[in-house]
Amino acid sequence: MIDSEKVAEQVRMCAACPKMCRHVCPTFFAWRSDAPTPHGRALLIHQEIVGTREIDERGVEVLYQCLECSHCLTWCKPEIDIATIVEIKRRDLVESGKEPSGIFKLTALIKDTHNPFGEKQTKRNDWIQRKGKKGRKILYFTGCTAAYRETDSAQDTVTLLEQLGFLVVISSDEWCCGSPLFRTGNQEAGLEQAAHNIEMLNTIDVEEILVTCPGCYRVLTNDYPEHGYELNKPVRHISEFLNTMLPQLPVMNFEGDVTFHDPCHLGRHSGVYDAPRKVIEQVSGSPVVEMERNKENAMCCGNGAGLRTLFPEYAKKIGAERIRQATSTGAKYLVTSCPFCKEMLNSQTNTALNVLDLSEFVRQAIEGRDVKTD
Amino acid sequence: MLDEESKKKAFARIAKIVGKTHVTKYETDRILNAHDAWPLSEAKLRAGEILPLADMVVFPRSVDEVSKILVVANELKIPVIPVGGGAGTCGGTLPIYGGIQLDLKRLDQIYQIDHDSMLVRVQAGVVGIDLEEEVNRHGYTTGHTPTSLRASNVGGFIATRSGGSMSSLYGKIEDLTLGLQIVLPDGSIIETKAVPRHSVGPDLRQLFIGSEGTLGIITEATLRLFPLPEVRRFRGVSFPDVHSGLVAIRKIFRVGILPSVVRLYDPEDAALSFSMHFQFEEGHCMLLLAFDGDANKVKIDEKHSLKICLDEGGTDHGEGPSKRWWEHRYDMYYPTRLTTGGYAIGDTIDIVATYDKLENVYHAMKIAMEAEDAVVMSHFSHMYQNGGSIYMIFFTSQPDAESAWATYKRIWDAGVAACLREGGTMSHQHGIGLSRSTYTEDELGSSFKVLKQIKEVLDPNGIMNPGKLGLGVRK
What we know:
The complex is a heterodimer of chains A (374) and B (475). With 374 residues, chain A is an alpha/beta fold. In chain A, the strands form two sheets. Chain A has a four-stranded parallel β-sheet with strand order 2-1-3-4. Chain B is of the alpha+beta class and 475 residues long. In chain B, 37% of the residues lie in helices and 22% in strands. Chain B has 18 helices and 18 strands. The longest helix of chain B is centred in the C-terminal third of the chain and has 21 residues.
């Protein structure tokens, strides 16, 4: 985390930049205005710091028209971390009760139901069908999107792990990891989730924790320890986990190219780029056909940091653009390694491009079955 | 600024044209969309000042919407300030008399490439890098690569008569633009046909190239394309002084060679830009060359150019300095702690002159600007058969805002006066905007009245970007 002096120095520089990163900013793409851009956000914060002008209601909205995807950082020579600065500012806004009402409602929902969808806790694991009864125990922290919205992906993860010889443990007491809360500025509420999850995770007798959601991964490996919540076992993302088991993975001719969408929380925020690609290459027998914007330069799917909650049409526009980019590779499959990204991309795809989460992709190979085409 | 009644009336009518989500009166939007990259604006923003604001910002989606907005503005006599990428360096988009900022970024369509004619039709709001990447996918380059490429857009290129770093070979935007669509202040839409040459009277297209939104709004252009070069080779040669470097450049053009890049760094700029990375004699200049095209032709051109350079006393440094510049050519555009600290301010006066005057202009401007407390470093770039441009880069840092802004103005006044006195022209590619507006009459001399008369005929109500290009200045 950066201190207030550093924030002031960074926004002063960014506010004086001729917008050298704006062309990759997904919210600039969606709005085509200079307001929801790194430069715009920095200028608002700079003017408040130097006492020129308070951030008004529209300014608050602008600060929530940010995906915190950090794509701007890839293109910033002075390495100004606008995503982190925006998140710090959002905390101030939440503390003073100035966050948008949509974010207030989202926070209340998570505090009340422990997931951002308002679903019942008792239904969290409704989807699970388990066959395996033995093997090395591994805890699967499912995350809310997989548990409530991408249950096929979650089930494929469980089945895959069982087929690889693991006994999958899933807690019925898992709460939202807190990612939507941390990213939208409610650190206190995020830490409530953290406290619960840490206690739950640290008392389960397993050797490691596996996650499929990069949002959960970042929170468990970064936000929790940053606030003193230490897990007593390692956390691995499914892509890293499968990358260590390549010889055991199936191989299938998918009869079409495969491209990969880098989730922001996995790529730019956690530095994991190669693992999912190696898994895809092993399973499909061919290297990933890259989109022009890939790895550090990958475009966000549009689903992060509260944008879809507050501005769904603009978020979808960004998702549709990412689908266009994937389609232009000529690939038949767009694989990602994030249920949250998968949900957005799948909602915007066309019949020619099949969107799959990594677990689903590997499971297709095991089953040798064709994927959906409608 | 408009009175409340006029503002309300205009806003309601414009909202009907573009929809409520594409016009805004919020102060936050007006602040965030107000400025371009004029160093004085940036310095003032850093210092906590609020720049002049428009009354509203509108984001039309089509030429028809632009036309309808201008009909409203013309009827209500409201200033209209067209905004492109907002990357200009002269304050050309600052709404100094309020009014409507008409932002073209939603006009972002790239139409099909005409492969036979090597042309592309494109809307004004397309960002430069997006256009370049798209035509690259089809094996072409626009040949237009200004340092602002990631932030500036097609409309802004044309409105400011801009130039890219390879203009010696490919030309400036006025050479690259074949056809235009323009909306006049009364809302009428006109087009100039895209043809390579014609003899149907004066070239009206050229009237609007560089008009900076004072005569109408550019909404679409047909631009030339070039096949991506088979090879691009780089060469760096140091010279003991500016004179010998300029002689070498002149002779290269004289034998018919057109390098894509020609940049001669004076001793100060060479030391700052290259001494950390390459060994060359202290106090020497550095010439950067690049050659684009067919491998055999490039090889011959490079060899011949190098011989000319060595004959004029140059020292060969291989491809290193030139290639490094190419790979880092956007770096200087980023802010740094040094250039954004305190009341620091730097800028560039990008003058142009013929070879017979170029050296005198350089020395005269350097002396005049340094006398006003400026640190000055320069490079000669955008060179042609008959002359070229000098980037007179200056930097000053003062203890407070008042003296910083005053020093900045004195440096500009002294630099431009010296340029004009020695027979130079005060801008090669950045345009006039606000920073040079007051010098326009001196620059154009007896021809300024023609520009004024054209303005009066096309824009009798004076709504188009008033205060820029020395036109429509109000009390």
